[in-house]
Amino acid sequence: MDELVIAGRSFASRLLVGTGKYRDFAQTRAAIDAAGSQIVTVAIRRTNIGQDPGQPSLLDALPPSQFTYLPNTAGCYTAEDAIRTLRLARELLDGHDLVKLEVLGDPQSLYPNMVETIKAAKVLVGEGFMVMVYCSDDPIIARQLEDIGCVAVMPLASLIGSGMGILNPWNLQIIIDRLKVPVIVDAGIGTASDATIAMELGCDAVLMNTAIAGAANPVLMASAMRKAVEAGREAYLAGRMPKKVYQAPPPPL
Predict the structure, then answer these.
(1) More confident position, 88 or 1
(2) What are phi and psi of 163, to 5 degrees?
(3) Is the Cβ–Cβ distance between 208 and 225 less than 8 Å?
(4) Pair 158, 166: CB distance under 8 Å
(5) How far apart are alpha carbons 215 and 246 in whole angstroms?
(6) Number of other residues whose CB lies within 10 A of the CB of residue 75
(7) Residue numbers annotated as active site
(8) Residues 172-212: pLDDT tens digits?
(9) Contact by Cβ (8 Å): 135, 155
C-alpha cells in the first residue's frame, strides 16, 4: 500500500494507536503489535516515560527505537498547560518534536476548545514543534490550523471515547478536499467499519485508543482495525462505482 507521509517522514501503517486504558504495558504492546502501528500516542500527564524513575515505564514496553512516539496533551484545558506539557515531552524524549496538540473544552464532552488550541498551535509551531492537532470538524478552523503550520489536522468523528462513529461525513469530506496536509480522523471510532468508512472518504489515517483498549478482546480488535484501515484505503484508491437507483438500462423510446 502507498505510505503515509507526515512532516516528510514516511510510515507504512495508516493506523495510529493510543497507549492508554489497557490492563498493563504487556497488553499495550500486544495490541500495538496486532494493529501493526508505527506511531503511538502517549498522554504525557498520565503515562510514565521517565518522569517516575521507580515505576514501570512505557519506554521499556514500546522502545522508541521501534516506534515513533507522538506525545499528546490529553487532559489539558488551556493553551498554557498544553505548551508546558509538550515542552516537557521534548525534554524527556531527547528533543523529539513531532507532537499531538489537544486542548479540551470541558471534562464531560472532551470537545476541543479551538480558541485555546489555535493559541497553543501558534506558539508551538513557532518553537519548532511539528504539530499534529486534534480539532473540531469545522473546515474553516481546519484550514486555519494548516495555515498556522500544523503538519496534520485531526478532526473528530464524534466525541472522544463515545464509539459513535462518523456522525458528519460531509464536514470531513470538505476538510479532506480543501487541505494539503494529512487529515487524520481522531476520536469517536467504535468498530472496524467506522475505520473503513473514514478511509473510504479519503482520510489519510485514523487514530484510536478506546475503540481498541475498551473492546472485550483488545488484541483481536486491534487486528480487526488494521485490516479495516487497509481495506478502506484500498477501496478509496480503487475508486468505487457510481451509486445508481437500479442497474437495468432505460427502456427504448
Answers:
(1) 88
(2) 65, 20
(3) yes
(4) yes
(5) 39
(6) 16
(7) 100
(8) 999 999 999 999 999 999 999 999 999 999 999 999 999 99
(9) yes
